[in-house]
Amino acid sequence: MKKIVLAVAFAGAASTAFAGGDTAPMVDVTPAEIIVAPAASSSSSNLIVPAILVALIAAAAAGGS
Asked: Is the dihedral of CA 48, 51, 57, 60 positive or negative?
């Protein structure tokens, strides 16, 4: 009977000793600053690709005849 009481006492002490458990550490995360670079506007760069396409279509049309 004494062994049972002693076992219960140790079990109770062990369960309260580990109460709360091992928790993960809190990590303070600061949000990163987002920097948006303004797009460089250039009217000549907006015309280069369509001009090349028109030139290729014109060359294909002239060469096919």
From this structure: negative
